[in-house]
Automatic annotation (TrEMBL):
Coiled coil regions, renumbered to chain: none
Keyword Membrane recorded: no
Protein's gene: HGD
Enzymatic class: oxidoreductase
Protein known as: Homogentisate 1,2-dioxygenase
Organism: Cebus imitator (Panamanian white-faced capuchin)
Cofactor: Fe cation
GO CC annotation terms, alphabetical: cytoplasm
EC number: 1.13.11.5
Domain Homogentisate 1,2-dioxygenase N-terminal positions: 2-261
Length: 427
């Protein structure tokens, strides 16, 4: 696959098998080149300001409307019911979510979707959901699209994240038992965070976002191709007799894209103190309140720790935001044990959290030489201004909730020495 690069750019692309397939100078010729159908995909209201206006023109073999009616299907475990269980402010941690064995049951991306937590309202386009997918089989003659919002999808083996924006169809192939995390935001799109005093460059650089070029298949599927749609939180399926991946040419700024987390340009403290994790924001889905996100996607990438006279791991914290964390690979610096790749944790609004007792003891005594932090590791956080509710699957059916999580802080003891200002005086 070839890619164009840039974040949110206006691009044009033609499948090289059909040169000249993009109409010249207009979007709706009476007859399109190669007798294609013109179809607009709108990712924003027509009337959005230019800076947030998103749409693409697709030139396809058949328009998307060539399908049989949608019917409700009973697959996966997606929900947007945030009242399934009573609220629970406790620190929650999940062991690695179990992937079904292919030898026992074939499960693809859609049938392996499970909603873990979320908040807000799908119908008024305000909120988010965090889903886990657990699958062992490729989607065969099936594709998926989400009417409710954008899906930011990451899986465990690569460090590549795929935001599939609202309405875009995709089909996921897997080569082994596969697990991953999805951050869904309703009604808004992910953006690059502003850089402020950092300047014009840094964090996730726009040119590292890759957009696939046009490529079509003109494939009849007599047995039926199934288009699955998540609409108002429920799954529906419609049959058609051709592949939907029939776009010969397109232009616009509303496209699928992918980003490799290894390209993240890490900025951090080079003098003293632990900077807030917002310095590691890859993408943000903004709310209408300035500086307040529906959800931020934040990573904890491999880097150098060099801060002097500093307790270097994450500080103890209570936050008005909700913090869901996952681990793609390696170990997270604040929790050496218990937080495992493929698991997760949720520290809800104002719920205390921070390094486990072991981490505190070690980091308080450590010699502060320059040190590689998180080599071979990729942890991430979905941080939201909404107060998240956990689903029945998350609390019970997944059978992965770690009942002993709170014990990692139990050994914390007072070191208070009221008569001695040990160790440091003013600098
Ligand atoms: O480990 C966490 O919970 C996330 C986190 C990271 C950090 O560097 C500072 C604060 C914080 O809550
Ligand atoms: Fe925190």
């Amino acid at each position: 696959i070839q890619y164009l690069s840039g974040f949110g750019n206006e691009c044009t692309s033609e499948d090289p098998r059909c040169p000249g397939s993009l109409p010249e100078g207009q979007n709706n010729p009476q007859v399109c080149p190669y007798n294609l159908y013109a179809e607009q995909l709108s990712g924003s209201a027509f009337t959005c300001p230019r800076s947030t206006n998103k749409r693409s023109w697709l030139y396809r073999i058949l328009p998307s409307v060539s399908h049989k009616p949608f019917e409700s299907i009973d697959e996966g475990h997606v929900t947007h019911n945030w009242d399934e269980v009573d609220p629970d402010p406790n620190q929650l941690r999940w062991k690695p979510f179990e992937i079904p064995k292919a030898s026992q049951k074939k499960v693809d991306f859609v049938s392996g979707l499970h909603t873990l937590c979320g908040a807000g309202d799908i119908k008024s386009n305000n909120g988010l959901a965090i889903h886990i997918f657990l699958c062992n089989t490729s989607m065969e003659n099936r594709c998926f699209y989400n009417s409710d919002g954008d899906f930011l999808i990451g899986e465990g083996h690569t460090s590549v994240y795929f935001p599939f924006q609202r309405g875009m169809r995709f089909s996921i192939d897997v080569f082994e038992e596969t697990r991953g995390y999805i951050l869904e935001v309703y009604g808004v799109h992910f953006e690059l965070p502003d850089l402020g005093p950092i300047g014009a460059n840094g964090l996730a650089n726009p040119r590292d976002f890759l957009i696939p070029v046009a490529w079509y298949e003109d494939r009849k599927v007599p047995s039926g191709y199934t288009v699955i749609n998540k609409y108002q939180g429920k799954l529906f399926a419609a049959k058609q007799d051709v592949s939907p991946f029939n776009v010969v040419a397109w232009h616009g700024n509303y496209t699928p894209y992918k980003y490799n987390l290894k390209n993240f340009m890490v900025i951090n403290s080079v003098a003293f103190d632990h900077a807030d994790p917002s310095i590691f924001t890859v993408l943000t889905a903004k709310s209408v309140r300035p500086g307040v996100a529906i959800a931020d996607f934040v990573i904890f990438p491999p880097r150098w720790g060099v801060a002097d006279k500093t307790f270097r791991p994450p500080y103890y914290h209570r936050n008005c935001m909700s913090e869901f964390m996952g681990l793609i690979q390696g170990h997270y610096e604040a929790k050496q044990g218990g937080f495992l790749p493929g698991g997760g944790s949720l520290h809800s609004t104002m719920t205390p959290h921070g390094p486990d007792a072991d981490c505190f003891e070690k980091a308080s005594k450590a010699k502060l030489a320059p040190e590689r932090i998180a080599d071979g590791t990729m942890a991430f956080m979905f941080e939201s201004s909404l107060s998240l509710a956990v689903t029945k699957w998350g609390l019970k059916a997944s059978r992965c909730l770690d009942e002993n999580y709170h014990k990692c802080w139990e050994p914390l003891k007072s070191h208070f020495t009221p008569n001695s200002r040990n160790p440091a005086g003013p600098n």
